[in-house]
Amino acid sequence: MAELRPSKRAREDDTGGVSETEEQSSRRAPVVVFAHGAGGNSSHEWMVRWKELLASATNAVEVFTFDYPYCANGKRGPPPKAEKLVDSHIAEIEKAVEKHSGHPLVLIGKSMGSRVSCMVAGKKDTKVAAVVCLGYPLKGAKGPLRDTTLLELQAPVLFVQGSKDNMCPLNELEKVRKKMTVKNDLHVVEGGDHSLKQSKRVDGMTQDDAERSALDHIQRFLVEVLDDVP
């Protein structure tokens, strides 16, 4: 993966000088809160692996993971409605922001965790610099599209979706994206399922290649978005 390029503020100005100090640049490193999906908590192998990958791709000061109350401390059972997880999610964000005050906040989530992240970022009193959705569940097993949360978003968002993800038909997502009022972007993992996993190599790309491409897109997106954060 390429090194994280410096922000516009950190590059040379017209006189050849540097317009941002190293200290100022380091303060722009985001604090990331990474939320799990309904199929496993923060200790799930997928979450542990992606936490490490995201730490590098985002240049984060720290990547925080946590367990929603319904599955914390060894609890088992189906998750409640996503709306009921917002308060506990915000509580975890507050801990992260308190520890790394002054750093931009980036919310990342897998599936259900991405939906709750978007709900949090839709609140006007929550200062979220960006959201990254890893497999956004636009369509549930039953019922209409769950697009209201996306239309209420107050922060830029990047969708990372598998092309074979039945929970997020790309043609339906495209329609929603056109109606959204915030900056939004999409990276498609060709042949990927809801967990971005390919069933076979696609166009010569291995699973590692596909994930590296997704992480590179996440990196570019955050560099651009965080460059605009005051």
UniProtKB/TrEMBL annotation:
Domain of life: Eukaryota
Official protein name in the record: KANL3/Tex30 alpha/beta hydrolase-like domain-containing protein
Domain KANL3/Tex30 alpha/beta hydrolase-like: 30-221
InterPro entries: AB_hydrolase_fold, KANL3/Tex30_Abhydrolase, NSL3/Tex30
UniProt source species: Sphagnum jensenii
Annotated region (Disordered), positions in chain: 1-30
Top-level taxonomy: Eukaryota, Viridiplantae, Streptophyta, Embryophyta, Bryophyta
Residue ranges with Basic and acidic residues bias: 1-14
